[in-house]
Amino acid sequence: MSYAIISLGGKQYRVSEGQRLLVDRLETEDGKTFTPDVLLVGGSGAPSLSPQDVTVTVKVLGQQRGPKIRIGKYKKRTGYKRHTGFRSALTQIEIESIGGKKKAESKQNAEAAPKPPAGAGVVDAAEAPVEVEAKPKAAAKPKAAPKPRAAKPKAEPAVEPDVAAETAKEDES
């Protein structure tokens, strides 16, 4: 397995073994290892989309802050000036290994799952879950009929004066 695509903090990263990268701040302590979600594994043969049997082991190297970014706002002729800054909180991680089956996780899940006692199919009346009947909702009040709207008088189109007829009358006189 030469590369994998993992998901950390809502972002996706293409990683390979031994690679170090900066990601958004993680809640994991320095020196601890964890396994992120694996979205794709490829490099040897056809890529495998969302593999269930492959893990990526990541080691947290430390916490640090990104470069300072200066933000300035200015509007001319108004005297408006604002300056702020921003430094992102980052975690440096190293990809220790890509591949390997999820043996450790499956063992932990098998041990953590409680085994049902013998005769689990038989349920005593005292242990049976109590069903609570829901109260019927009160009937909704009928809505009032909408008020009738008063009819607006329609405006009559304005009559344009006949300019040609008026000029003809003036010419005759």
Task: Note the main attributes of this structure.
173 residues; 38% strand; mainly beta
Structural description of this entry:
The protein is mostly beta strands. It has a domain at 3-102. 12% of the residues lie in helices and 38% in strands. It is built from 2 helices and 10 strands, in the order ββββββββββαα. It has helices at 103-112, 163-172; strands spanning 3-8, 11-15, 20-24, 33-34, 37-43, 45-49, 55-65, 69-75, 80-86, 89-99. The strands form 3 sheets. The protein has a 4-stranded antiparallel sheet, with no helix packed on it. A 4-stranded antiparallel sheet has the order 3-10-7-4, with no helix packed on it. The chain is elongated, with a radius of gyration of 38 Å. The chain starts with a strand and ends with a helix.
Total of DSSP H or I helical runs spanning 4+ residues? 2
The total beta strand count reads: 10
Rg of Cα set: 38 Å
Rounded to the nearest angstrom, the distance between the terminal CA atoms is: 107 Å
Secondary structure class reads mainly beta
* Arithmetic mean pLDDT: 81
The proportion of residues forming helix, as a percent range, comes to 10-25%
The outline comes out as elongated
Beta-strand residue fraction:
35-45%
